Amino acid sequence: MFTQFYNEAIRKLVIGFGSLFNDIRIVKTNPDGVDETIRVPLSYGPKEKFLRRIEESSSISNTSKVQITLPRIGFDITGFAYDSGRKTNKLRKRKVEAGDGLGYSYNYNEVPYLISFGLYVFTRNQNDNLQIIEQILPYFSPEFVVSFNMNSVNKKVDVPIVLNGVSTVDEYEGDFDSRRNITSSFEFSAKSYIYGPVKTGKIILTSEIDIFGSDEKFYGSVTDTQDLRIGITGGYTGDGYTAGNQIYGEFYYE
Question: C or N: which end of the chain has fewer Cβ atoms within 10 Å?
């Protein structure tokens, strides 16, 4: 029953989700009064990983230690849930004809799943945080639709990505040497699908029907004791020819 296959449907969804936020920029004013545009880095990882790196300095040598630069955006998958509300007939097939016209690819109906994502924004000050939030919220009302090429059969699949909620935490506790950390968390749900293996089949090019002992009248010299062979599209084209006690050709009922 179980065979090896990999459509990369979840991997493509992760890449597509991350690409929505990989070009967010903020504007800062330097001490000289000049505005600088900064692109916010994006990476995959759990929220706790980023908080740990923010709180602790990384060692690049025995004497030098550096802290993670902010602002920064991270995201990860937080869960999978079967979506029974979008369930359809699981035996339905989707077919795509091959380029040579002699075969086709197909798979059975996809399985609906809600895939949850968490998006985390880490900044040092409130202005940077609000700039990033305002560049995300207007596009989700509450969903944003992304099209994916999942496999050779499902080449254009629209996946709504729904924004479920936003929360912000301002961590500014401790002594005066502690660094301020403002974290905004976004909760998303992608109404996606999981696909089974893609299979191949051959197209039926010819089909024959044998009728014996017919009493009907035909145009041609078919008798009651002979065999009338008719193709799937109505018979063979051209004049009929005799092979043994069978007559082949195109005939029509009177």
Answer: N
